[in-house]
Amino acid sequence: MVSITACSIVAALHSKKEDEYFTMSSEDGEMENQAELEEKTRLINQVLELQHTLEDLSSRVDGVKEENLKLKSENQVLGQYIENLMSASSVFQTTDTKSKRK
């Protein structure tokens, strides 16, 4: 007794046109898979590029924060220095307006 599989029955029923159609469908499927693979690769590369950009921006923000703290500290020192100069100078001393009027 001959063993007949579903594949051998289907293969026997296919005409040349059907074989060409399945070949084309198979190629279309491969082209779709290739297109999907290219799209995934493009998206992965884009994500990696954005990740590097985010790291660069984060590093830059950290640097700006440090510079900001440094400048705030310097401004406080300069403000205190100016206050000390103003208090030591007679030009900036408060005067008694009543004594000037007399």
TrEMBL record:
Coiled-coil region: 40-74
Gene Ontology CC annotations of this record: cytosol; Golgi membrane; trans-Golgi network
Keyword set, alphabetical order: Coiled coil, Cytoplasm, Golgi apparatus, Membrane
Main location: cytoplasm
Function comment: Positive regulator of amino acid starvation-induced autophagy.
Domain of life: Eukaryota
InterPro entries: SCOC (IPR019357)
Any one Pfam family match given in the protein's UniProt record, by short name: DUF2205
Protein's name in the database: Short coiled-coil protein
Topology relative to the membrane: Peripheral membrane protein
Family note: Belongs to the SCOC family.
Protein location: Cytoplasm, Cytosol; Golgi apparatus membrane; Golgi apparatus, trans-Golgi network
